[in-house]
Amino acid sequence: MKSEMYESMHAIEEGHWYFRAKHDIVLSIIEQAGIKDAKIADFGCGCGLMLKFLSKYGTVTGIDFSSEALEFCRDHFSGDLIQANLEQLSLPEKYNLAVALDLLEHIEHDDIAMKNIYDSLEENALAIFTVPAFSSLWSKHDENCMHKRRYSKEEFQNLVLGAGFSIEYISYYDFWLFPPVYLVRKLAKLFKFDQNSELENKY
């Protein structure tokens, strides 16, 4: 991800509706699973706000490719942080809860990264993933975030199953936003506005 995007994410993550909705969904899944005292890995922890929330459920380790992102994590989190490339992953222990939120779209060989996440988990661990959907929504914002792709549900399902995971639940979310987001992104592409993602990050 571009350097200025980390700065923007750090500034808006706590209050922006998109991040708040995603965090609420993930935390509700963990609550429903009744998880306590877990060994937790946040793969692609970004600027670290989720690390703070996850600490309620056990001992958390933040893992990210970017040293800059890990520096931002220290504003929210005082636990263990590991700088690692998920395509060449070797971790000192295995975990029984993992999250990887809007991570795999950044990685060239997402199949290798997904398999390495699988191999980092204990048997019967819970893993929660989110990724951006629909190639038709591709925009300058994706390029600024240095995304490699967007996924359909079928594509992501095949990626997860191919790594060895079983799937308890898979779904699109915030689907009601598809029409307005599609319209705005097509207009932005046509008229070349919001080239630095200011509109995306503000609203």
Features:
203 residues, 5-stranded parallel β-sheet, 5 strands, alpha/beta, globular
Describe, in plain words, how this protein is organized in 3D.
- With 203 residues, the chain is of the alpha/beta class.
- Helices cover 41% and strands 17% of the residues.
- It contains 9 helices and 5 strands.
- A 5-stranded parallel β-sheet has the order 3-2-1-4-5.
- The chain is globular, with a radius of gyration of 17 Å.
- The model has no long low-confidence stretch (mean pLDDT 87).
- Kindly estimate the percentage of residues that lie in beta strands according to DSSP: 15-25%
Amino- and carboxy-terminal Cα gap: 20 Å
The largest sheet has its strands arranged as 3-2-1-4-5
Estimate percent helicity: 40-55%
Poorly predicted segments: none
Major beta sheet, specifics? Answer: 5 strands, parallel
Q: What would you call the structural class?
A: alpha/beta
Task: Label the overall shape.
Answer: globular
> What's the alpha carbon Rg, rounded to whole Å?
17 Å
| Structure summary, number of beta strands | 5
The chain-level mean pLDDT equals 87
List the topology elements.
Layout: H1 3-12, H2 17-33, E1 38-43, H3 49-54, E2 58-64, H4 67-73, E3 80-83, E4 95-101, H5 110-119, E5 121-130, H6 140-144, H7 153-162, H8 178-191, H9 198-202
